[in-house]
Amino acid sequence: MNAVSAIVKEHKNNLYMIGRLSIYELKTAYVGNRLGLVWMILNPLIQVIIYWLVFGLGIRGGAPIQGVSFFVWLICGLIPWFYIGTGITQGSNAIRSRLAIVSKMNFPLSVIPTYVIITQLYTHFILVIVLMTIVSISHGLFAVSIVGLIYFSFTATCFLLALSFITSTLSTIVKDIQYLVQSINRMLFFITPIMWTMSDHTPHFLRVLIEINPFYYIVEGYRKSLLWGDISMIFSLKTLYLWVVTLGMFVLGSILHVRFRKYFVDYL
Fold first, then answer.
1. What one-character DSSP code corresponds to residue 60?
2. What letter would DSSP give residue 68?
3. What's the rounded Cα separation, in Å, for the pair 48 and 161?
4. Around Cβ 157, how many Cβ atoms within 10 Å?
5. Residues 147-167: what's their mean pLDDT?
């Protein structure tokens, strides 16, 4: 547990720096663009419209799901996935892409994946506000939905942080890991029921695969909280399963990071 203690101590001692660097990352991501931070909303909006046209109108013919318009149902799953998907890819490349700069100074490397994920969280908060506005106008918003959104946002962030410690360490040592993560990320997007729903005809092996997918738990948590004010998933065994997995990944990621970070420069 020495590795975990070292990571926690580094974060505790550098909380202010994590906040400043995450804001700096957000600003530099859009600097030089005429629309600036508007792209935080515009880019996801374009993707949502494309998916809605293809899957909502093209494949489903505009049919609603459980009495909810497909567009509203879709964005309740896509908005959390945008955060998850971007967090996976950005987190895995966090250290390698910045190593040439920070290697020349005494810098706590463990905070890099953290402030990269926090940067994505800022964008996610803005999109969630837009999402809540759309849902409240078209469907109505439950007071308990806020509780669900806070919990599942926190859960997604913790899971992404734990995962990023593993992937950022491995991809720094072996560059191919970054491409593997990107491929798995695309696969998870289609396996997770974001644009489709499970039915009685869904093969059993696929249903099991989906059920053990932590991102299914998070996406469904967002969707049920927003559309039906249902936060019962918080009190299910799936919650215990996700937090056990998250804790296990954090311990493993901490051990890997502390073990190999002194060799990172050798892989530049």
1. S
2. B
3. 26
4. 19
5. 97
Q: Is 202 left (phi over 0), alpha (psi -120 to 50) or beta?
A: beta
Which positions ≥6 away from 212 have C-beta within 8 Å? 241
169: alpha, beta or left? (left if phi > 0; alpha if psi -120 to 50): alpha
Q: Report the distance separating Cα 245 and Cα 241, nearest Å.
A: 6
Question: Residue 197 contacts by C-beta under 8 Å, 6 or more apart in sequence?
Answer: 65
Average pLDDT over residues 6-34: 86
Burial classification of residue 205, based on how many CB atoms lie within 10 Å of its CB (0-12 exposed, 13-18 middle, 19 or more buried): exposed
CA distance 85 to 18: 21
**Pair of tokens at residue 226:** 């927003």
Most confident of 24-33, 133-142, 163-172, 182-191: 163-172
Residue pair 115/25 in contact (Cβ under 8 Å)? The answer is yes
pLDDT in tens, 103-141: 777 888 999 999 999 999 999 999 999 999 999 998 888
Q: What is the pLDDT of residue 31?
A: 65
3-class SS string, 179-226: HHHHHHHHHHHHHCCCCCCCCCCCCHHHHHHHHCCHHHHHHHHHHHHH
Judged by DSSP in three states, 108 sits in coil
The rounded distance, in Å, linking the Cα atoms of 113 and 119 is: 10
Length of the chain: 268
Block residue for tokens 């966090």: 94
Partners of 65 in the β-ladder: 68
Q: What is the pLDDT of residue 37?
A: 67
Structure tokens, 71: 């567009």
Q: Which residues, at least 6 apart from 97, have a Cβ–Cβ distance to it below 8 Å?
A: none
Give the mean pLDDT of 78-87: 95
